[in-house]
Write a structure and sequence with these properties.
The chain has 380 residues and is of the alpha/beta class. The protein folds into two domains: 128 residues, Aspartate Aminotransferase, domain 1, CATH 3.90.1150.10; 236 residues, Type I PLP-dependent aspartate aminotransferase-like (Major domain) (Aspartate Aminotransferase, domain 2), CATH 3.40.640.10. 41% of the residues lie in helices and 14% in strands. Bound molecules: pyridoxal-5'-phosphate.
């Protein structure tokens, strides 16, 4: 039987109470009319002429070419398109790992990803170090390596923490993986930060020959409805194995999604620039709000993503507070217990705020008000 997807269940139970959604990890969804308004004449003419037949099972050549342009030295042959990043990861893992192969996953991570690994075969978890702004514990990771280990899965920039990987840790991790001939897979769906900002690291496929980048348009581009994701991998045999897995799931991407995905990628700087701006403003607003309520929250460091996961200090704990927040103030945010896993300890005293939406600032105003009322009640 499949394990419960705690995050999905929490949303299902509470979404109808939310007037302010601070739970989403994706950036502000772009209306289709805005996306089409960015298209040049060539793309508009392709869009109008698009037929609705089956497309290339690997993703249209012109879409893979547009994706390849985002990776230094990559070609369209090194890309496999899938229906979203999660399908991409599932196809890759299915293609790479045999039943006896051991995998290591760095947690916290999107629950379906670690479920996927555990349902398949032996898996160990290595937790990020909370006290050091979520740095990777390379000693613990090295200790988890077995003779049968074949793959390390990570998600940087990370959800729920918002953390980036420290560039020194990344280079040490690559050296470790190289010594043990391990595949290093990074779910890069939150790679939103500017190239110039501190802590930015290139896609893993550019840094390591056994590095595999998973990405898509759902998060940083705010286009989850397109269901456009991909794998970038230098190894033709691994991509072919992933392709075999994909054939069992769906024959191809939807043609209209491929075309819209191409328009988004060709206008990436406009779309990402808008989303970064929204995320930055909301990050700064959240910091202002939380620094006014240090009796209830420890704000923690900011991040380059549209996510933040501060520690909640109130007596009832983060889960009970999140439930009260949505019931009494209509603000939906995610308690960190939704990322718990049997593989390693994940802190339960935090709340993840999704800061990608343009409507988030009204929710942060309401949060400010609600926290003031809560502090006043505590003092009374
Ligand atoms: C880290 C991570 N990877 C993948 C996904 C799923 O992405 P997609 O909708 O493109 O399948 C999510 C969704 O929340 C996520 O948080």
């Amino acid at each position: 039987m499949r394990e419960d997807f705690a995050l999905g269940s929490f949303l299902e139970e509470h979404r109808h109470l939310a007037r302010h959604d601070l739970s989403a990890s994706e950036c502000d969804p772009l209306p289709m009319s805005d996306l089409l308004a960015m298209a040049d004449e060539d793309d508009l003419s392709r869009w109008r002429r698009l037929d609705l037949g089956y497309t290339d099972p690997r993703g249209a050549e012109w879409l893979r070419a547009a994706i390849a342009e985002r990776y230094h030295g990559a070609s369209s042959r090194e890309i496999l398109c899938c229906a979203g990043a999660q399908e991409a990861l599932a196809c890759l893992v299915g293609g790479l790992l045999g039943e006896q192969d051991h995998a290591i996953v760095i947690v916290p991570i999107y629950q379906p990803s670690e479920h996927l690994l555990r349902a398949r075969g032996p898996t160990s978890g290595v937790k990020l170090l909370e006290g050091t702004e979520w740095r990777l514990d390379l000693n613990r990771l090295e200790a988890a390596i077995r003779p049968s280990t074949r793959l390390v899965l990570m998600n940087f920039p990370n959800s729920p923490t918002g953390a980036a990987i420290d560039p020194r840790d990344l280079f040490d991790l690559i050296a470790l993986c190289r010594r043990h001939a391990l595949w290093l897979v990074n779910d890069e769906v939150y790679q939103l930060a500017d190239r110039a900002s501190p802590g930015w690291t290139p896609p893993i496929v550019e840094l390591y020959d056994r590095g595999v980048s998973i990405n898509g348009l759902s998060k940083a581009f705010g286009l989850p409805g397109l269901r456009a994701g991909w794998i970038v991998c230098r190894d033709a045999a691994v991509l072919a194995a992933a392709m075999r897995g994909k054939s069992a799931l769906s024959s191809c991407l939807a043609g209209p999604s491929e075309m819209l995905a191409r328009i988004a990628l060709r206008n990436a700087e406009t779309v990402l620039g808008r989303n970064r701006q929204i995320a930055r403003e909301n990050q700064s607003r959240l910091r202002d709000v939380l620094t006014r309520h240090v009796d209830l929250f420890a704000p923690g460091a900011g991040s380059n993503t549209a996510l933040s996961m501060p520690r909640y200090l109130g007596p009832e704990g983060a889960r009970a507070f999140s439930e009260r927040l949505v019931r009494q103030a209509g603000i939906l945010a995610m308690p960190s217990c939704l990322w718990t896993t049997p593989l390693a300890e994940v802190p339960r005293d935090r709340i993840r705020f999704g800061l990608g939406g343009s409507g988030v600032s009204a929710g942060l105003d309401r949060l400010d008000e609600f926290l003031s009322e809560a502090s006043a009640r505590q003092c009374a």
